C-alpha cells in the first residue's frame, strides 16, 4: 500500500522522529513560491511512539502548513532566512521607535555585522554556539561598545522571531558578553595640557579648539558652523546642521544636538576678529574659492576650497601633530570632550554639565537623570573658559609655554 501524503508522514532517523509534509515555500533564489517538502523535528523516539509522532505532526501542519502566502510572501519555518526576517519582520517594527539618523546607524551595524554574515542562513539553523562564536570573533576587531550593541541586536532579533512564532525556542537567550572585549579609551588630560596645546596654535586653530574645549562640541557640530550661526548680541552659537561622512545633514546625533549654545564673551569677540581677518585674507587672494566670510552662509572654519573641513583630516594633521610635539598620551576630539566632561564637574552642577554636553540622556553623562538649567550652562562654559585662560597665563609667566609653531597656512586642511 502506498504512502499517503495527505497529512504528511513520519520517519525515524537515528534517535528522533521527523515529520514531513508538502507545502508552498519561497525559493530564495527567485523569491517566488514553489512546491517543497517541509521538515519538522517531532521529538525523541524514547519520548513518543510513532502514532504520537503522527499526532504531533498533524498539529504542526495545522500551525504551519495552513498559513497562506501574504503580499510580501512571508513564510514560517524551514524557509525564512535571517536576512529576510530582519528586513521584513524586525526592522519594520523597530524603525518606528528610532529617529531617522539613529535608524541609519543601527541598520548599518546590523547589516555589516549580522546580515552580511548570516543573511542566507535559515532561522531554524541557528544555535547558541554559532551566535556566541560570531560575537567572540567580533570582540577581537570591534570596539567594546559595538560588540555590546551587536549582542543586544542579536538577542532582540531572535526574541522577536520567537514572539512572532517563527522559532519555537530562542537560541540567543543565554548569549554571553565576550570576556575579551577591547579596553575603552579613558584618556583624560589636565588643564595645563589643554592650555599648552592652545598655546601652540595660530589664531584660527586656537579659536577653533577653544570653542571645542569650552563647549565640548562634537566635531560634526564644530566644523558645520556658518557665520549665520554666530549671534553676537546673544553671545552664542546656534547648531543648525552637522557633518556626517563628508556630507552636511540638517539634524544632529541626538534630539538635543540642534540647539543654541552659549559661548564666552572673549570667544565671541575672537570670532568677530577672526571673521575680519578671514575677509582680509580672502580679498587678497587672486583665485577665490567658496563664499567670502562676510557672507552669512560661509563656514567659520573653511578648508582651502571654501567648504567645510574634514574632521578626520584635521585630527590627523593638527591634533596628532600637537600630541607628538607636546608629549601628550593622546589628543582627539573625543579625548577633549571626555576631558571637559571630567574637569567640568568642579565648574558646574551635574545638570549644567549635561546641558553643556547636549546629551539626550543625563545617564550618558553621570547615570543620574536631572533637568538642564540654561543659566547654569552659561556659567559653566564661562568658568571653563576662565580656567583655560588663567592656566595659559600661569604657564606663560613660568616660561613653560613655547611660542606658536603652527601658522594659519600650515594648519589649513582640505
Walk me through the structure:
- By secondary structure, this protein is mostly helical.
- It folds into 3 domains: 9-65, no CATH class; 82-163, Orthogonal Bundle (DNA polymerase, domain 1), CATH 1.10.150; 191-411, Intergrase catalytic core (hpI Integrase, Chain A), CATH 1.10.443.10.
- It has helices spanning 50-65, 82-94, 100-118, 128-141, 144-163, 191-199, 203-215, 219-222, 265-284, 311-326, 333-343, 350-357, 374-397, 408-411; strands at residues 9-13, 16-27, 32-44, 230-231, 236-238, 242-244, 247-249, 260-262.
- The longest helix is centred in the last third of the chain and has 24 residues, at 374-397.
- The chain is elongated, with a radius of gyration of 30 Å.
- 29% of the residues are buried.
- Belongs to the 'phage' integrase family.
- GO terms for molecular function: DNA binding.
- Residues 184-382 form the Tyr recombinase domain.
Amino acid at each position: 500500500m502506498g504512502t499517503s501524503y495527505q497529512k504528511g508522514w513520519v520517519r525515524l532517523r537515528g534517535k528522533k522522529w521527523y515529520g514531513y509534509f508538502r507545502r508552498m515555500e519561497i525559493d530564495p533564489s527567485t523569491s517566488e513560491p514553489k512546491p517543497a517538502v517541509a521538515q519538522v523535528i517531532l521529538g525523541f523516539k524514547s519520548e513518543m511512539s510513532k502514532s504520537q509522532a503522527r499526532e504531533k505532526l498533524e498539529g504542526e501542519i495545522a500551525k504551519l502548513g495552513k498559513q497562506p502566502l501574504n503580499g510580501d510572501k512571508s513564510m514560517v519555518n524551514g524557509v525564512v532566512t535571517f536576512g529576510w526576517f530582519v528586513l521584513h519582520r524586525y526592522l519594520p517594527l523597530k524603525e518606528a521607535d528610532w529617529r531617522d539618523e539613529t535608524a541609519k546607524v543601527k541598520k548599518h551595524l546590523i547589516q555589516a555585522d549580522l546580515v552580511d554574515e548570516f543573511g542566507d542562513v535559515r532561522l531554524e539553523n541557528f544555535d547558541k554556539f554559532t551566535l556566541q562564536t560570531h560575537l567572540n570573533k567580533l570582540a577581537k576587531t570591534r570596539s567594546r561598545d559595538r560588540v555590546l550593541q551587536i549582542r543586544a541586536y542579536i538577542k532582540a532579533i531572535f526574541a522577536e522571531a520567537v514572539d512572532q512564532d517563527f522559532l519555537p525556542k530562542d537560541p540567543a537567550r543565554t548569549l554571553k558578553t565576550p570576556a575579551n572585549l577591547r579596553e575603552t579609551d579613558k584618556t583624560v588630560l589636565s588643564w595645563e595640557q589643554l592650555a599648552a596645546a592652545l598655546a601652540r596654535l595660530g589664531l584660527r586653530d586656537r579659536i577653533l579648539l577653544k570653542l571645542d574645549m569650552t563647549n565640548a562640541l562634537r566635531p560634526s557640530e564644530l566644523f558645520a558652523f556658518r557665520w549665520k550661526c554666530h549671534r553676537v548680541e546673544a553671545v552664542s552659537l546656534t547648531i543648525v546642521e552637522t557633518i556626517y561622512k563628508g556630507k552636511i545633514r540638517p539634524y544632529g546625533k541626538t534630539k538635543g544636538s540642534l540647539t543654541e549654545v552659549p559661548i564666552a564673551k572673549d570667544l565671541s569677540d575672537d570670532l568677530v576678529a577672526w571673521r575680519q581677518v578671514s575677509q582680509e585674507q580672502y580679498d587678497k587672494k587672486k583665485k577665490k574659492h567658496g563664499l567670502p566670510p562676510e557672507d552669512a552662509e560661509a563656514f567659520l572654519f573653511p578648508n582651502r576650497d571654501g567648504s567645510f573641513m574634514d574632521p578626520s583630516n584635521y585630527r590627523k594633521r593638527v591634533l596628532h601633530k600637537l600630541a607628538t610635539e607636546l608629549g601628550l598620551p593622546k589628543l582627539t576630539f573625543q579625548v577633549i570632550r571626555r576631558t571637559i566632561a571630567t574637569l567640568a564637574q568642579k565648574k558646574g552642577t551635574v545638570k549644567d554639565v549635561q546641558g553643556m554636553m547636549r546629551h539626550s540622556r543625563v545617564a550618558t553623562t553621570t547615570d543620574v537623570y536631572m533637568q538642564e538649567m540654561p543659566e547654569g550652562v552659561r556659567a559653566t562654559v564661562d568658568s571653563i573658559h576662565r580656567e583655560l585662560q588663567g592656566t595659559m597665563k600661569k604657564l606663560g609667566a613660568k616660561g613653560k609655554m613655547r611660542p606658536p609653531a603652527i601658522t594659519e597656512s600650515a594648519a589649513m586642511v582640505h
